[in-house]
Amino acid sequence: EVQLVESGGGLVQAGGSLRLSCAASRFTFDDYVIAWFRQTPGKEREGVSCINLSDGTTYYPEAVKGRFTISSDYAKNTVYLQMNSLKPEDTAVYYCAADQGSSCTLIYDEYTYSGQGTQVTVSS
Questions:
Q1: Rounded-to-integer distance, Cα 35 and Cα 77, Å
Q2: How do residues 36-70 score in pLDDT, each as one tens digit?
Q3: Residue 26 has pLDDT above 80, yes or no
Q4: What's the CA angle centered on 51, arms 118 and 83, to 5 degrees?
Q5: Could you tell me which residues come within 8 angstroms of residue 20 by beta carbon, excluding any fewer than 6 positions away?
Q6: Strands 118-123 and 10-13, sheet pairing
Q7: Is the pLDDT of residue 29 over 90?
Q8: Are 71 and 123 in contact (CB under 8 A)?
């Protein structure tokens, strides 16, 4: 079974940076799309980036474009989310999700697998 493990969350001041990691196992890495989502209590999970591992295509919503960067390391079967210029409104639990295929989408229900999440807290 596919496993995804997130790490790298923590507490950071506004304007700071964090790099999240999503370590993936038990699947052929470049056959998948991986996305990062975030969720705060009482809200739907919001997609913040995705990457098509077969061709490196990425996508970001306007809320994070220019601040967040998704990347992959095939040797380590790991996808990263570099988050710069963090704002208090970026505070959330961040999850990575994976699905086999080539459609880079930020719709959570279209992903088959998801990790347990990592907490990111941005103080003002």
A1: 14
A2: 999 999 999 999 999 999 899 999 999 999 999 99
A3: no
A4: 45
A5: 6, 7, 8, 9, 36, 80, 81, 83, 94, 96, 118, 120
A6: parallel
A7: no
A8: no
Residues facing residue 70 across a β-bridge: 81
pLDDT confidence of 101, banded at 50, 70, 90?
A: confident
Q: What is the largest CA-CA distance in the chain?
A: 41
CB 45 within 8 A of CB 95: yes
Rounded Cα distance, 97 and 67, in Å: 20
User: What integer is the mean pLDDT of 10-29?
Assistant: 92
Neighbours of 32 (CB within 10 A): 22
Query: Phi and psi dihedrals of 99, rounded to 5?
Result: -150, 145
